[in-house]
């Protein structure tokens, strides 16, 4: 396999001893401070190199080193200059520290600690700011990436591959401690994690501030995920942050910046009409790292997706590894025949296609002509170990006018830059599914988004007092989904009175109806908050300019690059073209002789392969549903309901046909037995209800009563929606 820079660590001492992470969450913005403690226990001077993951959209805004009593704060400089300064310092016997973002993927950083003398300790502090994503259940998700899987470098790629030293999670030689402080205008109702936590401690009686800690002894077998829940969480808000006193007025850092969180509410009438058209293209990763429970879970998810598709739509399924395959030469109309054919192929899919080459199947999908009045929706399932992240995202962006892209990062260490980038540039929605999560609820939420009518003609209009002007810092909003947040950053230039108010209106057209949401906000800046909003705004703008740089050539390209470097240096936020550099120019003794390089290893996930559990009864029932939405009364259905065929036949009211009876029984079973998994079967149940209504069947009430008696439930007819 053409693997990206996997250097296995020899049995050599590792100078990194511990990592301490402090997380400060204010509403939906997280500030993360990581302290890395190094100690050289060898008898020769060392250079320690550590390649590690960070969230892909993080704004890294501070980097410093402390040796004894001396603290050296790094500056942001153009990347090549910073590297040269680092090398020059080391070759002249000085100490230097370099932090740089990988050229291929913004979620991988490299930290070089140059010349630790024998017996010397250093503590490195790095700080970043990131936005927390809203989950289906209204929780806010923070993820501290701890696992870095080797990235697969496609054949013929010209990119320099990322050198990563990896060890299995159980052999990581340093420790992790993690604590979080959460504050919000609204009470914090709970904090959950995929890792063991100490109990939540409230800091005030209103419960608007709380702290929580990770239980000691983290095993590095997974990323640390926190889910934070506030009471009545999602209200549109605006935060105005004052500029930096030392920065020039009129500049991004000198002016106030506003961050708007918008939650569009769509009219109920429009939302209840689920689209009955669309071209659904599913792209499934079948590289070797998807083996075991991941590929099984993906197969079960595809079963649920196929059963939930509306009649009259089109679909196709692609899968990829080092090569790619598709089930049909081009998308086909959804029918009982095509659905059965696809399900048969899905059953045979294994994680047996080698590497992770996602670019070629994407090119093939985009080369297919779109089907008139069937909007294309692309669903990508991958564990995200891709070396050419930027190239892949660029391709999706280029084709964003013709489709929406919904992405799913599967397992520990899935690249956040890839998964979030696909959805952001493809106007869709991203989900992360760790190895302990059920994939189905998250995927069905995205299918519900895909079936929502697309929001068109989105515009943002500002209404501000005289003398105040606005500069948008975020790219234009291209997608809005019910209940999902959109963030908008803007710079406010000019003077306004203390009590001044601004207003922002988001206009859009939904299923042909013009709609708008409005938000009034005070222009008075919040008291000193440490500039997280400015830094996130700068990161957003840097991201847009980096995209522009990929699309431009020649002189224009150089101009854009220069802009990124200027903005990065001015805001103190790193970019693909800059790095943080710190040199200890103190009067310490100059080091003589060569340095020994020590690579600090990162954990790779040890994919768990649990024993195959028996087939879930829900999936057993779902697999029997026909494409039209009905269930046929046969021995397989009786078995899935846990009854004998004779009993099921005998309880059937005389005037009712077998399909109506089978469908009503299946619906009662779902409502009576599987309410906890309702989001997984809701869409296919709606399809069954539509089918029943179309039959105009007699004595439905009698059937529901007989079905309840047979299955031992008491589900009301209204609850079934028939």
TrEMBL record:
Family annotation (InterPro entries): VIT, VWF_A, vWFA_dom_sf
Domain of life: Eukaryota
Record domain VIT: where: 1-130
Domain VWFA: 279-447
PANTHER family xrefs: VON WILLEBRAND FACTOR A DOMAIN-CONTAINING PROTEIN 5A (PTHR45737)
Name by which UniProt lists this protein: VIT domain-containing protein
The organism of origin for this protein: Perca flavescens (American yellow perch)
């Amino acid at each position: 396999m053409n693997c990206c820079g996997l250097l296995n660590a020899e049995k050599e001492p590792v100078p990194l001893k511990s990592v301490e992470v402090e997380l400060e969450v204010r509403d939906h913005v997280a500030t993360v401070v990581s302290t890395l403690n190094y100690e050289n226990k060898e008898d020769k001077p060392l250079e320690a190199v550590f390649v590690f993951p960070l969230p892909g959209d993080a704004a890294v805004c501070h980097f410093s080193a402390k040796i004894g009593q001396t603290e050296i704060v790094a500056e942001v400089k153009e990347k090549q200059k910073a590297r040269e300064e680092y090398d020059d310092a080391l070759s002249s016997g000085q100490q230097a520290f370099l932090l740089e973002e990988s050229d291929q993927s913004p979620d991988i950083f490299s930290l070089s600690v140059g010349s630790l003398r024998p017996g010397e300790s250093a503590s490195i502090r790095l700080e970043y700011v990131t936005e927390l994503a809203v989950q289906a259940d209204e929780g806010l998700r923070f993820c501290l990436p701890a696992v870095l899987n080797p990235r697969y470098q496609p054949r013929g790629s010209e990119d320099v591959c990322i050198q990563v030293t990896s060890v299995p999670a159980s052999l990581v030689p340093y420790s992790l401690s993690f604590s979080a402080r959460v504050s919000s205008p609204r009470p914090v109702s709970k904090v959950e994690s995929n890792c063991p936590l100490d109990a939540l401690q409230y800091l005030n009686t209103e419960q608007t501030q709380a702290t929580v800690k990770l239980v000691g002894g983290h095993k590095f077998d997974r990323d640390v995920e926190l889910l934070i829940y506030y009471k009545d969480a999602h209200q549109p808000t605006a935060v105005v942050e004052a500029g930096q006193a030392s920065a020039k007025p009129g500049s991004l850092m000198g002016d106030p910046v506003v961050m708007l969180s918008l939650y569009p509410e769509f009219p109920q009438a429009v939302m209840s009409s689920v689209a009955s058209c669309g071209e659904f293209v599913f792209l499934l990763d079948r590289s070797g790292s998807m083996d075991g429970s991941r590929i099984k879970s993906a197969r079960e998810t595809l079963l649920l997706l196929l059963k939930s598709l509306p009649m009259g739509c089109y679909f196709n399924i692609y899968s990829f590894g080092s090569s790619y395959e598709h089930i049909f030469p081009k998308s086909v109309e959804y029918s009982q025949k095509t659905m059965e054919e696809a399900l048969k192929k899905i059953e045979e899919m294994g994680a047996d296609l080698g590497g992770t080459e996602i670019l070629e199947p994407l090119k093939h999908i985009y080369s297919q002509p779109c089907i008139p009045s069937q909007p294309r929706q692309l669903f990508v399932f991958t564990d995200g170990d891709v070396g050419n992240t930027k190239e892949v995202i660029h391709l999706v962006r280029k084709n964003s006018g013709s489709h929406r892209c919904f992405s799913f990062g599967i397992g520990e260490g899935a690249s956040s830059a890839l998964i979030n980038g696909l959805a952001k540039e493809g106007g869709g929605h991203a989900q992360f599914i760790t190895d302990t999560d059920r994939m189905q609820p998250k995927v069905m939420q995205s299918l519900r988004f895909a079936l929502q009518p697309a929001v068109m003609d989105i515009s943002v209009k500002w209404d501000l007092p005289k003398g105040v002007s606005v500069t948008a810092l975020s790219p234009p909003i291209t997608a809005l989904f019910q209940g999902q947040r959109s963030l908008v950053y803007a710079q406010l230039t000019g003077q306004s009175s203390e009590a001044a108010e601004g207003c922002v209106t988001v206009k859009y057209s939904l299923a042909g109806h013009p709609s708008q949401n409005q938000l009034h906000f005070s222009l008075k800046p919040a008291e000193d908050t440490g500039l997280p909003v400015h830094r996130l705004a700068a990161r957003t703008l840097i991201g847009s300019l980096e995209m522009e740089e990929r699309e431009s050539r020649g002189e224009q390209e150089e101009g854009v690059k220069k802009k990124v470097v200027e903005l990065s240096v001015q805001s103190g936020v790193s970019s693909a073209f800059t790095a943080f550099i710190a040199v200890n120019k103190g009067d310490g003794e100059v080091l003589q002789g060569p340095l020994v390089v020590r690579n600090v290893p990162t954990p790779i996930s040890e994919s768990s392969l649990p024993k195959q559990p028996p087939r879930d009864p829900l999936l057993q029932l779902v697999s029997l549903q026909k494409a039209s939405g009905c269930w046929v009364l046969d021995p397989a259905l009786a078995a899935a309901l846990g009854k004998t065929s004779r009993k099921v036949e005998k309880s059937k009211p005389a005037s009712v046909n077998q399909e109506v009876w089978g469908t009503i029984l299946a619906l009662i079973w779902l409502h009576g037995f599987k309410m906890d998994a309702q989001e997984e079967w809701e869409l296919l149940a709606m399809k069954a209800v539509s089918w029943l209504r179309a039959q105009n069947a007699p004595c439905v009430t009698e059937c529901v009563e007989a079905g309840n008696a047979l299955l031992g439930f008491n589900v009301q007819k209204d609850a079934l929606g028939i």
